[in-house]
Amino acid sequence: MSQALRTFGRIIARHWPALMAWYLGGEALHRVLIEFAGFVGGHTTLGGLLLLPLAVAARLVSYVAMYLTVRPSLPHSRREDAGGIREFGSATLAAILPFFAFYTAWGLLDADQIEFFQIALAVALPQSGEGFSQIGDRGGLISVGVLPVTVLVIALVARLLLTRFAARLPRWTIILATYAEVLWTFMLFTLVARWWTSVLDWFAERQAVGWLRGFGDWFAVNLEPIAAVWEGTTWLVGILVAALIVPAAWLTVAGVIFGTTFDSTPAFSRFGGGAARGAAMSIARTLVMRLEGLWAAVTVIWRGGPLLFGAYALAYALWAFAEQAGTRGVLLLIGGHERWFWAGVFPLITVAIAAVAEPLRVAIVATAYDSVIGRPRSGLDTRPSGVDAEASEVVVAPLDVEQEGTFGVLGQQERQQDAVRRRFGKA
Description:
Number of strands: 2
Strand order of the largest sheet: 1-2
Helix content: over 70%
Structural class: mainly alpha
Number of helices: 12
Number of domains: 1
Strand content: under 5%
Keywords: Membrane, Transmembrane, Transmembrane helix
Low-confidence stretches: 272-276, 386-427
Shape: globular
Mean pLDDT: 78
Largest sheet: 2 strands, antiparallel
């Protein structure tokens, strides 16, 4: 525990200004890109749709930068061969999928899309001149249809091609690879969220659902103890989600950014042997290796043991309580004002408080992660988030390197070392 406190204090003392700067920069860029995507979406929905994922990516990049900034202060997770633009780009690529999943589950993606739609609609309506029915392909309305599916497929194919031929492409193509990854992931979670919403709406209209609601209302009126137990259970589930699942999700995101790997290579990572060639097997190996890295990051949640995770969850809960209390205290201090006043001031207050709170959250998560990595029984280690050893030095995602070449080189080195040991042993 004392070492964890020292690590936390070291992070705050060394990196607080940098963490605050990265957070504010990410939020400012996110705000600008939302406005710009909404403006373009008011003229063409497709153009706005191609720009909106960059707003989410701005927040992703800021968090990746924050965690990589504190890495040198982590005694068990720092690496001498880590750092630089190559690790930054590689870690960003690796973190896109889990970050978007968390971003969508927490409702932030939906909030961005609603704001984008409001801005685009405000631009498109005056131009249409005849009302909502004459907007056409403007206005930023995103629905399940041919357009988003087409964008998803094209972006995914482009990403796979850039991965396949990364060694032959110039270094600047990492920008295109990152954008393609962000775009197809954004569209995937957008379509899944829209589909899930339609499923829930369909169920809500079924007669059986109405019957169950009436049955529940009858229980609430006639059997108050059961209703109280149900409400208490619902409240407890909400508390558990906030107290356990959210900190666990942030721990997973940090694990992906830091490049968590297993001490011993799992059997499924040797998928595709030396005889497997071609684009299809290359893509399959890439997906399997991505899943391995994500799974290694997920195991950080429990490989530290219940005591360590419990202490981390408690620290995270105290942080969340302090952030909410601080926000409430500032609002009470300002006092009551007109609606127009809060429309301009409230976002500034929340960003200012978050600029203080987010470095603390990063320090808490990074300290917990480093404590897990420091346990010998965890069986986990870190790598410098995916540096490609090819002579061309193209920046690629940490799990996009074709794996059989790597293991072949390592196996050859081990055989050479064994031969040398045998010679010295005979001598």
